[in-house]
Amino acid sequence: MSAPVQVHAVVSGRPDGPTIVLSNSLGSTHRMWDAQLAALEARFRVVRYDTRGHGESPVPKGPYTINDLADDVIALLDRLDIERAHLVGLSLGGMTMMRVAARNPERVNRVALFCTGAQLPPRESWLDRAATVREQGTGAVAESVVQRWFTPEYLSTYGESRKYHEDMVAATPAEGYASCCEVIAEMDLRGDLPSIAVPTLAIAGSDDPATPPAKLEEIAANVQNGRLLVVPDAAHLANAQQPDIINPALIEHLEQQ
Q1: Is residue 172 part of a domain?
Q2: Cis bond leading into 122, ω under 30°?
Q3: N or C: where does the chain have the smaller number of CB atoms within 10 Å of the terminal CB?
Q4: Torsion of CA 2, 5, 223, 230, to 10 degrees
């Protein structure tokens, strides 16, 4: 366990609205939520942050654990004087928010989990990726990562988006990326799921090779109050590829009484 870090955060939207905290995927920054921003800012106080080791956040030396990432979220809530918030995360961000929801339920209103899993074996593949990044930098994996983030049709149509996201991955500090790979390698949240009591929306991309719909189905089935949404024609960054489907579904979930 390491001490919480003061993660880089951007606060926008309605100061008087309910707070929503958005947690990014491995290899991205808070900018991965750009396609949700306008819709959410009209209704919520929006807090986006960069996971430790990513973007503009500090890069402590690894290894990190899922509890370290959860501690960073609680420290962020404390810093911003937020008693309770809606928690939304994608992939690594979803894993972080599951841990917070299970461990710190008093800080959580509702949860939305995108393209994530309670466990993502095999462990060795994550350790191998961590080793590659430490040796060669994140640029070595940027192309293959983005190929999992979007469907082939999307990537061939939107070349600028492909380059933008490859550059985002390549700009991630190697130690931060590798240490977060180690988080995923060691993480098993399956035992946490039954203790997540708040309403939880699990969103899968139908064509996601990294966290296929069965991973989100497992989450929705094992939390106390879960619901599954499978988004067609979407891979791992479903929020970026299909915002016209995801934004209304997310808002509806968060605004339910």
Answers
A1: no
A2: yes
A3: C
A4: -130
Tell me, yes or no, whether 161 lies in a domain.
Answer: no
Q: Is the pTM of this model over 0.90?
A: yes
Q: Could you give the CA distance from residue 98 to residue 193 in angstroms, rounded to a whole number?
A: 8
**Arithmetic mean of pLDDT, 116-125:** 98
In the DSSP assignment, the letter for residue 51 is P
Tokens of residue 22, six digits = 């958005």
Examine residue 101 and state whether it is found in any structural domain, yes or no. yes
Report residue 88 as tokens. Answer: 């939304």
Q: Encode pLDDT of 188-231 as tens digits.
A: 999 999 999 999 999 999 999 999 999 999 999 999 999 999 99
Residue 15 sits in a domain of what CATH number? Answer: 3.40.50.1820
- Residue 53 falls in which region: left (phi positive, over 0), alpha (psi -120 to 50) or beta: left
Residue 12 has which token pair?
Answer: 């926008």
Range(s) of the domain holding residue 198? 9-119+189-255
The total of structural domains in the chain comes to 1
The rounded distance, in Å, linking the Cα atoms of 151 and 162 is: 11
Residue 81 neighbours by CB under 8 Å, 6+ apart: none
Residue 178 lies in a domain: no
In the block, tokens 């750009």 appear at 34
* Spatial contact of 203 and 249, defined as CB atoms under 8 Å apart: yes
Task: For residue 7, give the amino acid letter.
Answer: V
